[in-house]
Amino acid sequence: GLGAQDIKSLHKKHRKTVKKPIVDDDSYSEEEDDEPPKKRKKFNTPNTPKQKTPKWYKEASEILEEVIETKDEEGRDVRDLFWKLPSNQEMPNYYAVIKNPIDLKTIQNKLKKNQYKSEQDFIDDLHLLYKNAQQYNTDSSLAFTQSVCLQKMVNDTIAKIWPDMS
Questions:
Q1: Tens digits of per-residue pLDDT, 31-77?
Q2: Residues contacting 34, CB < 8 A, separation 6+
Q3: Of 8, 92, 117, 158, whose CB count within 10 A is highest?
Q4: Is 0.90 surpassed by the pTM of this model?
Q5: What is the Cα 96 distance to its own chain's centre?
Q6: How far is the CA of 125 from the CAs of 70, 91, 128, in angstroms?
């Protein structure tokens, strides 16, 4: 008779191999990732059918990358405060004061998922990011002063990459 080991090897030989489709980067979601992104190598899988991405998305990604890399006068990463919206426990009245909350993580995910209809929609979200912080926080707070750095980087980067949009 056949031993258990022989049966396992027979199963391995005759098992159908199901090829999983290669999934494009765009479906990768960082929903569970509450940490700001670290520098990552970009790669594209060859021969992958791509969803039609507007040409300006590449430029928008460059703008977002520069914004995410913004540092304040002290050399601190500005993204740490703007990566994820505060919870109700952290700031109970934030959502009463701020009617259209947005964070860098949401902007990044919307860009990855082709959810922006135009360059202006993308720009509007970037402006909303620092305007919300300036509306909610006092002038002397870290969040306010970092939002001013963010504002400058947003405006400078848009002017550099999309001069007609600034």
A1: 455 666 665 555 554 444 456 788 899 999 999 999 999 999 999 99
A2: 83, 84, 105
A3: 158
A4: no
A5: 25
A6: 16, 21, 5
User: Would you call 63 exposed, middle or buried from its count of C-beta atoms within 10 A (0-12, 13-18, 19+)?
Assistant: buried
The Cα 166–Cα 161 span in angstroms is: 9
User: Which residues are registered as beta bridge partners of 71?
Assistant: 77
Per-residue tokens: 64: 């977002």
Tell me if 128 sits within 8 A of 102, measured CB to CB: yes
Give the integer Cα–Cα distance in Å for 94 and 105: 18
Structure tokens at 35: 């940490």
Task: Kindly give, in sequence order, each residue whose CB lies less than 8 Å from that of residue 67, ignoring residues fewer than 6 positions away.
Answer: 104, 126, 150, 153, 154, 157
* Region of 57 on the Ramachandran plot (φ > 0 left; ψ -120 to 50 alpha; else beta): alpha
CA–CA separation, 166 vs 163, rounded Å? 6
Please tell me the total number of residues recorded for the chain in this structure. 166
- Quickly tell me which residue has 């990566």 as its tokens: 83
Rounded Cα distance, 133 and 58, in Å: 27
φ, ψ for residue 121 (rounded to 5)? Answer: -60, -45
